[in-house]
Amino acid sequence: MMLIVDRSTRQSRIRLSSSRLDLLHAYNRLMLGTSNDYEVFFGNIMKKLGVAEDRQIDFDLESANFRVMFLLARTMFHEFAHAFCMAYVSSSDGIEPWIADNISNEMGYALEKYVLGGCPTPNVVIDHSSMNNEDHAQQKDHAPFGLSFAENWDLWRPESKLELRKSPINQDLTNVVYPLPQRHIHELFGNELWTQKVDRFGSRAVKHPKLQRWKVLQDFQKHWIATAVPRNLLIDTDANPGGHGSAPRSL
Ligand SMILES: [Zn+2]
Fold first, then answer.
1. CA 242 to ligand 1 centroid distance, Å
2. pTM for the whole thing?
């Protein structure tokens, strides 16, 4: 890729929240044995959600750290798309262009979908009575319950002046959400993917695998529709009317 910078190229400044970077430092301190503050969140989250002691799980902190690294990289990648757009696309109303058939006007998510095959996000518990805003933010940063990804970014986001979004809303469309296997996240940080698989399979090697058996559909009303998920994990959509686009709670 060649970037041409001339007098018409615009510079933008994008500030990333330091919360995930702070977590990486905290994990480092844990590895060095100088502090165990990284563990505190994981020690409390199950208790906070009211999970009975004999049903609580032990979190694998190394895997959790990989998820944080991935989310940080993905955020930088996402914001780079916006900076690139602002640098080169002249638009008086600030609306971002569509990329190919992606009509979301959100270049960050459009690039994620193009490269990764979907838009990854942490699974979070959103409607538990013990959860306040800070708890939600912490869950998003620590990603204790793994990641999932939707094939499309918020498919039915209403047109909003604030977000400068101009996409048509098509209620007939259904979004598809998949769990993101932890193994794939580890692969993204390994040598084999970049030195061998990308050479052999091209950009397909980087795309998130889509586990058909575990996919969940989401309709326009934001109700989850389980497909091949075992019945004991089916989601009671009535319990969460109008719940907003986070991950399916069965994952
Ligand atoms: Zn964005």
1. 23
2. 0.83
